[in-house]
Write a structure and sequence with these properties.
mainly alpha; 4 helices; extended
C-alpha cells in the first residue's frame, strides 16, 4: 500500500515537473548547464580528495555533497570542508 502511494506521488510530481518545464519554455538548455555543473562539482571534489593539497581531509563523493557543490559552487566546497573540520 505504502509503495503504491509513493509511486503515485513520484509519477504525479514528475508529470508536474515536465509540465512546468514546457509551460515556461525553458527548453532543454538548463539540463545541459546543470549537467555540466554536476560533472564539474564531482571532478572538483575528486581532485581535492586525491591531489594531496589537504592531507587528512576527505570529502565523500555522494549525491548530497555533489549536490551541495553543484548548487553553491566553490563556496560549497569550502562549506563542506568547514563542516568536516567542525564536526569531526
Amino acid at each position: 500500500m505504502l509503495r503504491t502511494v509513493a509511486m503515485g506521488v513520484l509519477i504525479v510530481s514528475a508529470a508536474l515537473l515536465v509540465l512546468t518545464v514546457f509551460r515556461k519554455r525553458l527548453g532543454w538548455a538548463w539540463l545541459s548547464i546543470f549537467g555540466t555543473h554536476l560533472i564539474l562539482a564531482a571532478l572538483g571534489i575528486y581532485i581535492l580528495n586525491f591531489s594531496g593539497i589537504l592531507t587528512g581531509l576527505h570529502i565523500p563523493l555522494n549525491p548530497t555533497t555533489i549536490g551541495a557543490v553543484t548548487i553553491l559552487g566553490l563556496p560549497g566546497v569550502v562549506m563542506l570542508l568547514g563542516l568536516k573540520l567542525t564536526l569531526f
